[in-house]
User: Fold this.
Amino acid sequence: MAVTNFQGALRTFLLADTGIAALIDARLHPPPAPQESAMPYLTFQRISEDESDGRSLGKKSDIVVERWQFGIYADGVDSAEEVKTALRDALNFLAYTTLSGYKVFYAWRESGVEGFEPENDGSEEGYNKITQDYFIKRKIETE
Assistant:
């Protein structure tokens, strides 16, 4: 399948990473993930974008800084931490690279929240969830 936008380029890049693929296989979804998804899995979505970073002298910018949010869902703390580390390692390689024609300057982690989400059935069962926000600075159009 051809990549037609940056979300597709980012998904392709992440699923090609051996560390991530070994942990989540192809379970990388825009939210909400399918209810039948086996854990661990990742969700990801663009939260915001800012084109002002590359604007100068009244010209239209060809650079955007986007905030991407990743949700890590796992059966246990160790599994969630493994996915978190693999995601961080993969995104650290985004400096000065090209993803499906999109030039990426760099990515950095902004924030994160970790917690336990109980099931809705009143039991003590549940899952671990880690939310990570990353900024990605890139060219708007493919080269």
Remarks:
- The domain at 6-139 is CATH 3.30.2000.30 (STM4215-like).
- The beta strands are 28-29, 41-50, 63-74, 97-99, 102-118, 126-139.
- The helical segments are 6-16, 18-24, 77-92.
- The longest strand covers residues 102-118.
